[in-house]
User: Fold this.
Amino acid sequence: MKRTISLLVVLCLASAAFAKKGDWVTIKNGDLWYDTEGKVVQAHGAGFLQVGDTWYMIGEDRSRSWNPDVNMYSSKDLQTWKFEGKIIENGVTHSDLGRSRFIERPKLMYCKKTKQFVVWCHWEGSNYGASEAGVFYADKVTGPYHFKAGERPLGIKSRDCNVFVDDDGTAWFISTIEENQHLGFFRLADDYLSAVECTQLFKRQAREAPAIVKVDGVYYMLSSACTGWEPNQCKLSWTRNLTEGWSQLENIGDRIAYDTQAASILTIKGTKTTTYLYVGDRWMDPDLPRSKTIIFPISFKDGKCDFTYREQFEINFKTGEWREKKM
Assistant:
């Protein structure tokens, strides 16, 4: 009986953070997320993939802090999260995980050519000496996922990372390379399971947490400096060609990116308009396992980004519209 009451309390708290009004959903930042079983959502450094009308989110399970499994959740409205399972698990998916290797920033893609789901991530060892990327694949979005490789892509030291799939299906793995000095743009093979080419960009600018979105033919990238768990200034750059012509880095938002670090940029295409949602980690708030996930709408135009934090807002996933909501 006590367990039932506790679960009801948790679900009520979750519904207070995300309240529906018809087709409009209210998203409130700053609170822990709970899944449909009443458990705290553990998916830090999150990566997202939309399949039909369902969003799949994967991320680090930091409940044990330093040896994270990779969890998967699903949702149709980015508010009601169903736990799909541990798609990459210490000592199970790979014997070295939880021992000599750990994972950070897992990101999920779908390869139309092979009809497989592919995860790329930071595959690391003690003291960040390995500097490798990990690759996993599955025939179903929920798994099981199989280990493909754990290595330095094209022999290049690689750490903090993200992925991007272009309109033509070309996939990219973007990571800090060579002791965090530069960003490496790795073009992936047609099956997304290996890197075939690397372009070195933003030389000696020490950028990490890259998140890329394409808007009206222009590529925009948000990134942060390398300051560990401490937040810093988010910066914007843009180009019309992923491997050249990037603009100079420009400050956006406040000096600590509203106490976040970029994880993903989501594209919400509706019947009336398209909205872009910034997803960031509010690390160490109040500690690593309870780091918050922050979401708010951003927009891009003419090489600029409106990067304004909203403590809460409303969004309509059918029409793609969003609107302000006062506290």
In short: The longest strand covers residues 102-111.
